[in-house]
Specification:
The chain is an all-beta fold. 0% of the residues lie in helices and 53% in strands.
Length: 133
């Protein structure tokens, strides 16, 4: 007996998930302020050389925006994923990519984007909404 799965994908411009309003970057491009910013903390295994026997688990904070919201359904599993552009958060004064202004708002230098790769995807559970100006 052969079981055939139906594959379906839907794209959204915005969504509410886990107390966050998440929307794609071009959904509100005509506005001065946008709520399409997100931040997330990722874990990455770091080694000093290829045969390093003592890898270190590092926490990497990223700030970015959502390019696409995709709902994928194969008939068994339904999942929402976000395709994102990220900047690695660096708060050091000399080459900071992220700063907070005197009002507590986040200012991001998007001149140092991380290239799109397999970790460009995130789940709504793992991101938090931020506001950009």
């Amino acid at each position: 007996m052969s079981m055939s799965l139906m594959l379906e994908a839907k794209s959204y411009r915005s969504m509410y998930a886990f107390e966050n309003h998440i929307c794609v970057v071009n959904a509100k491009e005509h506005l001065t302020t946008n709520d399409n910013g997100i931040t997330a903390m990722f874990e990455q295994v770091c080694v000093s050389r290829p045969n390093d026997q003592r890898p270190i688990l590092a926490h990497l904070e990223c700030v970015g925006w959502v390019e696409e919201i995709l709902e994928l359904n194969n008939g068994v599993l339904n999942i929402v994923v976000l395709l994102c552009n990220w900047v690695k958060a660096n708060y050091s004064k000399s080459n900071a990519t992220v700063k907070r202004n005197e009002y507590g708002f986040i200012l991001v230098n998007f001149g140092s984007l991380i290239l799109i790769f397999d970790q460009s995807f995130a789940f709504p559970l793992n991101v938090e909404q931020v506001f950009f100006f």
